[in-house]
């Protein structure tokens, strides 16, 4: 069975799946945007578990329980801050998606939902970020066609949704 890729405009903290991906910062201790929303919705246990992880490098991913979220797990991926494309941002963003998928695969999770990593406070241009996100996921699924039942991109705005649709 081929994995489905879905696009929805929604609040990622409301998505019922095996794992949602958090656009985290290096500390993994919460922040603004998606990161703050996930920490608030999951409850204080998430912060306590994250404190024991020792942070996370840009492009890498670590996993916790989902606690009070509908998702059973949270995969925390640290995206790059946009610096005009001069600091390996594209490579690091692709690594976020690939490492998140690899971690989910390792734990035999079948459904995963991604936000648009790095396109908020980290200022990664949405058009380029969406192309990297979709391209990286498609490439992973071509090599691993049976691993996931569904990969969902959960977009914050109608504009972001349209950009992802045009690329998908």
Q: How many separate helices?
A: 5
Corresponding CATH superfamily:
Leucine Aminopeptidase, subunit E, domain 1
Strand order within the widest sheet? 1-6-5-2-4-3
Strand residues, percent: 15-25%
Number of strands: 6
Structure notes:
This protein has a single domain, classed as 3-Layer(aba) Sandwich (Leucine Aminopeptidase, subunit E, domain 1). The two termini are 19 Å apart. It is α/β, with parallel strands linked by helices and 168 residues long. It is 38% helix and 20% strand. It is built from 5 helices and 6 strands, in the order ββααββαβαβα. α3 runs parallel beside α4 and α4 (126-143) packs across α5.
Quick structural overview:
By secondary structure, this protein is α/β, with parallel strands linked by helices.
Secondary structure blueprint with pairings:
Elements: E1 4-9, E2 19-24, H1 33-42, H2 44-51, E3 61-65, E4 73-78, H3 89-106, E5 111-114, H4 126-143, E6 150-155, H5 158-167
Parallel strand pairs: 1-6, 2-4, 2-5, 5-6
Antiparallel strand pairs: 3-4
Helix pairs in contact: 3-4, 4-5
Key terms:
168 residues; alpha/beta; Leucine Aminopeptidase, subunit E, domain 1; six-stranded mixed beta sheet; 5 helices; 6 strands; 38% helix
